[in-house]
Specification:
The chain is an alpha/beta fold. Among the domains are: 194 residues, FAD/NAD(P)-binding domain; 139 residues, no CATH class. 37% of the residues lie in helices and 19% in strands. The longest helix has 25 residues. 52% of the residues are buried. Bound molecules: flavin-adenine dinucleotide (FAD). The site of flavin-adenine dinucleotide has 39 residues, from helix 1 and strand 13.
């Protein structure tokens, strides 16, 4: 094959989500001439902000809370504030409200969180303080593990063994978390071990559902611990003006360092010659060559199966990639409002919370959702997570108007059966059409239920609702395979040095020397952390003998 590519670029990054852009920033910082290719009409991936309900109402379509990113060195290292990036830091990070109007809130100030938990259990409040202090003790190690390539599983286990033995020598009132057990412990097991009140258990336990883990799934306990502590420590912040301002700041950095970004540029395949990538071919037929490396932030299936192809990757790897578990899908309703919502108990606290979990205080309630979802049924009483868009940042709406989002965790990607006593069509639904047929009715039913149980003025204040099904998420600018948010389920065997599969865990591909993974399919996984992008860039620069 004659190679006719122009070789203008040292590096091509596929995908302009926040991870692809972060990777590109560090490559550009090191002096490489970088091109970022994005298939959607704007940059941002799962950090876009769009007017999807009405003009002037700017919704964060996917990510809203800046949480994991609190542990990232990227904003400082790249001086992103120079490029317009600014955080807003609400005092109340989360509240969990129950149908009887009761609630627990997590404040930026631990003392106020403790007071809030004390309403339900003094012992749980004391325990939370101890758990949080334990987190602070381990925080540096956690930051390092997130912002570095994953350690081999055997080394990780050795570390855990060592720590567990050393911890047992500490004979004081400290918390010994037994790290090996903790790493595999389910959420239910973890909350039952540490908390007594059902309200505290659900308040902390719900965080594992964020990455699609049911109460009895292995590994859920450590996810709940991590999320809750990161938020207690750094807050549940939001990006001023919308999450899109993070990718915009990263893109400005790239351009100011000589890089280029092309949107409406879907990559069809990576061209490989003798075990080396030499360029990409776009869906529109255009070919672009590359001198040194290609980094891809698409999901691992797209990169390996579609972009590299069966002819370039070992059979063993192809088979493992095809067996990746993607997890449960998500649903969302974006709602433009005339006036702010008022909760059943008329609490100011709830209106001032960045996000709000709405559920009864029962772990079994979460189990039922996952049971229904995993059996192809639409959960009758799903878990809703509310983002308080306009009350946190008035610049996202026209004057005196309001906006919120309900993220619904978890729903089936393929609906096999409708369990409901309301308006949903009962006739058998074809898989492709099912979500189109039921999406808006399902969204409306959830809104009615929230109106009845938690927010009595919700329905009367609505200007416009837009519901997104798993199929909509999959079609959006995202790596939302099968309508999921994790880019590969966060199971113990798909985490750390097993992510996305052991052979690809170090951001590289054995049979192709210059293609790298830099998205949330790699360690440390989903969430806006900037870590997969930065970690991959460090690996690439080390391989190229370049220092940052
Ligand atoms: C509804 C929802 C709510 C969420 N809420 C939060 C939250 O509150 N806090 C949080 O931290 N995280 C949240 N997340 C998760 C978080 O948004 C993602 O984990 C993260 O943004 C993924 O970033 P990424 O750069 O790895 O991937 P993406 O943002 O998906 O970027 C990948 C990019 O690659 C592009 N692409 C794909 N294929 C091609 C191709 N062939 N050619 C060119 N470009 C291509 C895509 O269009 C996309 O822009 C949420 C996710 C969802 C779906």
């Amino acid at each position: 094959m004659a190679i006719t590519f122009n070789l203008n670029y040292d590096a091509i990054v596929i995908g302009a989500g926040h991870n692809g852009l972060t990777c590109a920033c560090y490559l550009a910082k090191a002096g490489l001439k970088v091109l970022v290719l994005e298939e959607y009409h704007t940059i941002g991936g799962m950090t876009i902000t769009e007017e999807i309900t009405l003009p002037g109402f700017k919704s964060d379509v996917h990510a809203f809370g800046y949480q994991l990113a609190n542990l990232s060195p990227v904003p400082k290292e790249l001086d992103l504030s120079r490029y317009g990036f600014e955080l807003m830091k609400p005092e109340i990070s989360y509240s969990h409200i129950f149908p009887n109007g009761g609630y627990i809130s997590m404040y930026r100030d631990i003392e106020r969180t403790i007071k809030s938990i004390e309403k339900y259990s003094k012992r749980d409040a004391h325990t939370w303080n101890k758990i949080f202090n334990n987190y602070l003790k381990n925080k540096d190690a956690i930051i390092t593990s997130i912002n570095s390539p994953p350690k081999l599983l055997s080394l990780q286990i050795k570390d855990m063994e060592k720590r567990d033995l050393e911890d047992k020598k500490v004979d004081d009132d400290d918390l010994n978390l037994d790290t090996y057990k903790f790493d595999l412990q389910s959420m239910r097991s973890w909350v039952n071990e540490w908390f007594e009140a059902e309200e505290s258990k659900i308040m902390f336990g719900t965080f594992s559902a964020f990455v699609g883990l049911a109460p009895d799934d292995a590994g859920g306990g450590s996810i709940s611990y991590l999320f809750a502590n990161i938020i207690q420590d750094g807050g549940n912040n939001i990006v001023k003006g919308g999450f899109i301002n993070l990718p915009i700041a990263l893109s400005k950095y790239i351009i100011s360092h000589g890089g280029e970004i092309m949107t409406n540029a879907a990559v069809k395949n990576i061209v490989v010659n003798k075990g080396k990538a030499i360029g990409v071919r776009l869906e529109n037929g255009k070919e672009i060559g590359v001198k040194k490396i290609i980094a891809s932030s698409t999901d691992p299936y797209t990169l390996v199966i579609k972009h590299l192809g069966e002819e370039n990757v070992e059979k063993r790897i192809l088979q493992k990639i095809k067996k990746i578990e993607w997890g449960d899908a998500i649903f969302a309703m974006y709602i433009a409002l005339n006036n702010p919502v008022k909760f059943k108990n008329d609490s100011e606290i709830l209106s001032l919370s960045s996000q709000i979990h709405l559920s009864p205080p029962e772990i079994e309630y979460l189990s039922k959702i996952f049971y229904e979802c995993r059996n192809g049924k639409l959960p009758a009483n799903p878990l809703a997570i509310m983002s308080n868009d306009s009350l946190m940042d008035a610049s996202r709406v026209p004057k005196n108007k309001h906006l919120l989002k309900f993220l619904i965790l978890s729903v089936p990607y393929d609906i096999k059966e409708i369990v409901s006593d309301n308006n949903l069509p009962n006739e058998s639904l074809t898989t492709e059409l099912a979500w189109n047929q039921v999406r808006d009715i399902y969204g409306d039913n959830i809104i009615s239920s929230i109106n009845k149980n938690y927010i009595p003025n919700l329905c009367s204040e609505i200007l416009k609702v837009k519901s997104y099904s798993p199929r909509d998420f999959e079609n959006k600018p995202s790596t939302s395979i099968r309508g999921t948010l994790s880019c590969g389920a966060i199971l113990p065997y798909q985490r750390g040095s097993m992510r996305p599969i052991p052979e690809l865990a170090n951001y590289s591909i054995p049979s192709i020397s210059n293609v790298y993974l830099c998205g949330s399919g790699s360690h440390p996984g989903p969430g806006v952390s900037m870590a997969p992008g930065r970690n991959a860039a460090m690996k690439i620069l080390a391989d190229l003998d370049l220092m940052v």
